[in-house]
Amino acid sequence: MSETTRIPAAEITGFKGALIKRFANKQLGQVPSSLGVYWHNQKVLMSMAGIGSKVQKWNECDQQLKSFAHMAVAAQVGCSWCLDFNYFEANNLNLDMTKAREVPRWRESTAFSPLERQVLEYAEAMTVTPPSVTDAMVAALRDQLGDAALVELSGVVAFANFTTRPNVALGIESDGFAAACGLKPLAEPSDVA
């Protein structure tokens, strides 16, 4: 992470801080520097982490589709931390890494199936302000995924917006998770809006 955070990271201290650092080291191999920024308001940090752990337990929608959708939001919003972390997580979940690395430029890439392209388009349409989701998008995804999976996908995209936007606002950038485990770099986002 660069030193561009708009709020300097606080020192993570105390018993709760020691537990969080140990958990992060065990799960991620390092303590994300973003934790120090969020440590200034531990209620916010713990609530966001709690929601994130609940989102990870959802299982009606294909994990790869959800991962790509989250990465599409991160790329669109410009959250390098979320994009890097989700790429790292896609590797840990044994997802298709050729596709995962292409998410930032999915429109130009030939790697994605028609359904994956619809999911990526839907994630972006939910993310723009105002949202530009159409009846046709929802109908096509309902036909292929079913109602429960589409509701879950929508929740994942909403959660991605919930996490990416404050990171960008606070100046939190990538911690280099993907590079640390030797993953190929992500494709560069296209300049097409």
- Radius of gyration in whole Å, from Cα? 17 Å
**CATH homology-level superfamily of the largest domain:** AhpD-like
The portion of residues assigned to helices is 55-70%
Task: Give me the CATH fold name of the largest domain.
Answer: AhpD-like
What about the largest sheet?
none
Fraction in beta strands:
under 5%
CATH architecture of the largest domain: Up-down Bundle
Q: What is the number of helices?
A: 10
The N- and C-terminal alpha carbons lie at a distance of: 26 Å
Class based on secondary structure composition and strand pairing: mainly alpha
What general outline do the C-alpha atoms trace? globular
Number of strands: 0
Q: Report the uncertain regions.
A: none
Overall residue-averaged pLDDT value? 93
CATH class of the largest domain, please? Mainly Alpha
Count of all domains:
2
List the helices and strands and how they pair.
Elements: H1 14-28, H2 34-38, H3 42-56, H4 63-77, H5 80-92, H6 97-102, H7 114-127, H8 135-145, H9 147-169, H10 177-180
Care to describe what's here?
There is one protein chain. The mean pLDDT is 93. The relative contact order is 0.18. The longest helix is centred in the C-terminal third of the chain and has 23 residues, at 147-169. This protein is globular. The chain is built from 10 helices and no strands. The chain has 193 residues and is mostly helical. The protein folds into 2 domains: 14-56, no CATH class; 63-180, AhpD-like (Up-down Bundle), CATH 1.20.1290. α4 packs across α7 (114-127).
